[in-house]
Amino acid sequence: MADVAPSDAARAARWSCLMYHEVTPAGAAARGGYFSVTRTEFERQLRTLRALGLRGESLERVAGERLADAVAITFDDGHETHYAEAFPALLAHGMTATFFVITSRVGTPGYATWEQLREMAQAGMSIQSHTHSHPFLSELSRERAEEELRTSKRIIDERLGQRTMTIAFPNGDAPRGFTARDFERLGYRWVATSAWGPNRFDGARRVRRYTVRRDGDHAAFERMARGASPAYAPEGVRLRSLNVLRAALGPSRYARIRRVALRAIGR
Ligand SMILES: [Zn+2]
After folding, report:
1. What distance in angstroms lies between residue 171's CA and the mean position of ligand 1's atoms?
2. d(CA 192, CA 178)
């Protein structure tokens, strides 16, 4: 049988992108729910990356410079714990990360301020867009979805004197009918999704991310850092089957039901 040459995409090296939410203070009682990790756990994960010969860098650096031996670290929502806990931990380990902020919430209780975000940017952290008001983008008209992307980018550009280039969809919910060209026209180079799995340096602009959760066991973290494929991951399978339910219910109804269900089982 003749050998089939692998496509360029299959040959391209894999890279992982981790997705975090809140990082709660070390020793503090767990709060922030299912998707938060403690600072103790976060620092342990950074040490694990080092032990695996990997370093954490912003999504824009890993994807843009096609960094080998690096993992992209991202944080959603712009919590004040990103400044107070995640930022010093990253600095201590000589690593960077991308922070996706909701521009209407910057400086409001529980969220980082512009001054803090500026300090983070000056220290090498990447501050990018998580929309202006954190809506379910697929439930908005095209005009309103574009407005969310345009407004948040304009505000971050002005406040931090930069060219914002990445959008992360709130709740992993993509706006309907947007093509790669639409994101480009709105000024975004990278699109961070919540699809679970590894990425390849194949020119794709949509980035899959592995959710890091409070109850995630350490072996699972190592697998994600190394770029586990969904086919071998129970969680990936689980998320795919939930997507069917989500499509049937619509994203905001699904999210409400899911929150109630997680609370009922003590998460
Ligand atoms: Zn979010």
Report:
1. 6
2. 14
